[in-house]
Specification:
Layout lengths: L1 H27 L6 H4 L6 H12 L5 H13 L17 H36 L4 H15 L2 H20 L6 H19 L3 H24 L9 H20 L5 H20 L9 H22 L4 H34 L18 H39 L2 H8 L4 H31 L1 H7 L4 H10 L3 H29 L1 H4 L1
């Protein structure tokens, strides 16, 4: 495996070198970087032209300019990168760090959401092959995959931003809207839960009735302007995760997994009160530290209470701990929402990555950046989600036809065990490649999304460099995206070996 990785690394370096050379030559021959200055009537035109020639090293032959850039990149190994200057004389390294942080914020969240939801939908549709759910999801995934990015972005701006902001001035639902939402939720729930006709009718009636009662109650509470989850909500939802996680892995009768999960819920309930004052206005170190503890402590509970089932016990406990931590954080975000609305009455923004000169508490600033992130994240996620769900479905169906799956069923194992322990792990192997390339591709492929939503990210850096015939920003873009493609492709190969031990041999 080590020899394989070293060979791949050597080949990847060669590919990056050849691609960078080709890209550099194409960019510098795509136009004249002095074109607008040559046509200018300014008195200091010659001075400005000389400045730009100096900034961009235009007095050197192209191969010497490329070599200068390559030497600057080589200094990155000594943590002293020199990526040159833009034609305005700005350090490209500083531009890259700002653009990369902006894009990574956007891409990382979109990729994680798309992967989690897409894989879950893919498994569900594979298990329920040729059902109404399968046909409905198939239609929606192809629809999402076919959406033009710029058109979908305009729709999101119109309905999820402008329309929502108008509605937030006086959030209310008409009887017709409540009836429509209740019928839609009831229809979707009976499709998801399936079963015979009688069960579907009961599911539809219960779900629709529940929504028809809850929406007026939340409106009466003015929940949409003053939301609160509260201790009860955190506790009930945490219990739901613990019970459902146990049921999906080993079944509720297996106390070796159930008890550590319930202990995690109890511990999360205690932490909810102990950390309440700290979380009113925390910082990122507190949140990161809390997230680490939300993984470590439940993992230890699962390890020492799970006995021979320590693996599933640790997994369910960690999932429960993370959800409890997330719900506690969400409760404090809800509490900050009314103050945020006072500072920003129209909360969902349509352009930019944050509100200029915004001054608020930690949670209010978090909400500002989060609402700016909302629309582009949704757009990138729904497009990627289609690929994940379809690949997962096809992979699960292919694995389901294998001999070892039939053997597992013939041994009397439960369908839950067959799906999640035997089929799902092997079906994840091709998904690893998709996830690796999707993340690397989104870093460089969000050009249109960033342009529509006014994000100063990697896509904007690349577009500006091309328009201005400035190779330095374009090569900085290539350095990040090309390296990301190589690194994540290699990580996919390593993930193969983790999922399938035969690959190690």
């Amino acid at each position: 495996m080590l020899r394989f990785i070293l060979r791949r690394l050597g080949a990847s370096i060669g590919i990056l070198f050849a691609a960078s050379l080709l890209l550099y030559v194409l960019v510098i021959n795509s136009g004249d970087p002095l074109a607008e200055l040559r046509e200018s009537n300014a008195e200091n035109r010659e001075t400005l032209m000389q400045q730009r020639i100096t900034f961009m090293n235009l007095d050197m032959p192209w191969y010497q300019r490329y070599w200068t850039w390559l030497v600057g990149v080589g200094k990155c190994f000594a943590l002293q990168c020199d990526l040159g200057t833009s034609r305005q004389g700005v350090d490209v390294g500083a531009l890259l760090s700002l653009a990369a942080s902006s894009t990574l914020r956007l891409v990382l969240l979109a990729t994680v959401l798309a992967a989690i939801l897409g894989i879950a939908i893919g498994v569900l549709t594979a298990v329920r092959q040729y059902s109404g759910l399968d046909y409905g999801v198939t239609f929606m995934t192809f629809l999402f995959f076919s959406l033009p990015v710029f058109w979908a972005a305009v729709l999101l701006k119109e309905y999820l931003a402008i329309g929502y902001n108008d509605w937030m001035r006086d959030p209310a639902f008409s009887p017709l809207q409540i009836a429509a939402i209740a019928l839609l939720v009831g229809f979707l729930m009976q499709i998801f839960l399936a079963g015979p006709l009688k069960r579907r009718i009961i599911t539809f009636a219960v779900a629709a009735g529940f929504v028809a009662v809850v929406i007026p109650y939340l409106t009466w509470l003015n929940f949409f302007r003053f939301p609160q989850l509260g201790f009860g909500g955190v506790l009930v939802l945490g219990l739901g995760v613990a019970l459902s996680g146990t049921a999906m892995t080993v079944g509720l009768r297996n106390t070796k997994v159930l008890y550590p999960a319930l202990a995690t819920v109890a511990l999360g309930a205690v932490v909810y009160y102990l950390a309440f004052g700290v979380l009113e206005n925390p910082n990122w170190f507190v949140l990161v530290g809390g997230g680490i503890l939300a993984v470590l402590i439940p993992a230890l509970l699962g390890k020492y209470m799970g006995a021979h089932l320590r693996g599933p016990a640790m997994g369910v406990s960690v999932a429960t701990g993370l959800v409890m931590a997330g719900l506690t954080t969400l409760d404090h975000i809800f509490r900050a929402w009314p103050g945020f609305l006072l500072l920003k009455p129209r909360p969902i923004a349509t352009i930019g990555s944050q509100t200029p000169n915004f001054a608020g508490t930690f949670w209010e600033d978090f909400l500002d950046k989060g609402t700016q992130l909302l629309l582009p994240t949704i757009l990138l996620a729904i497009i990627s989600l289609a690929s994940y769900s379809r690949y997962t479905r096809s992979s699960m169906l292919e694995v389901g036809q294998q001999d070892y799956i039939r053997t597992a069923r013939s041994k009397g194992l439960s369908e839950r065990t067959v799906i999640f322990r035997h089929a799902f792990r092997n079906a994840m192997i091709p998904i690893a490649t998709i996830a690796a390339f999707d993340f690397a591709g989104l870093i460089g492929g969000a050009v249109i999304t960033e342009s529509v939503f006014g994000w100063k990210g990697m896509g904007e850096l690349f577009r500006t460099g091309l328009l201005q015939v400035d190779p330095a920003p374009v090569m900085a873009f290539f350095l990040v995206t090309g390296t990301a493609a190589v690194v994540f492709n290699m990580l996919a190969d390593i993930f193969y070996a983790i999922l399938d031990p035969r690959i190690r041999v």
